[in-house]
User: What shape does this take?
Amino acid sequence: METGFLLNGIAVGFAIAAPVGPIGTLCIRRSLEGGFFAGLAIGLGAALADALYGVIAAFGLMALTDFLVLWHDTLKLSGGIFLILLGVRSILVVGDPGPPRERPLRAAGLAGGLATSFVLTVTNPVTILSFVAIFAGMGLLHAGGEPSQSMALVLGVFTGSLLWWLILSGGVGGLRRHIPRAALPWINRFAGALLIGFGAAAITN
Assistant: This one.
């Protein structure tokens, strides 16, 4: 029985993670800049946030859902401002990226990327509403009241979300060596403009 919930969770997690938005833009940018693991750190943060929202929906923690909805505007404003700041930084910090093979990965940088994507995902209350709507539509809300089924559902959400980020960061990381170094600053500028656009949209909508 739990296998079915696990597979359903994987499908839900993958479907929610796959649309390319601000986190996808960050993942692509970091994968081009630092390689597979740099991009994966962004995805892991988002997958953890998705799993957290999955816990809230699967276990029927409606009080937390109501709290997130109540603070929707504040969270959306905070997330939007954060995105704009990230976009401005991406546009301004466009120095010579150096040869890809000579850019060592640093634990602090990976942790920072993970924390950034986690915060951005958590400050988007629409995500929890998406989980509640999808789970309800599939008859999975509260996972039938069985803790083991709820846990299987949450694990599936995390796995499905992480699977998407593995695919995205792996694909982009594999292409980075074929992209001219001179193009990377322009990619950073483009990514920064996208992030600013996403942030402005979050604030105004």
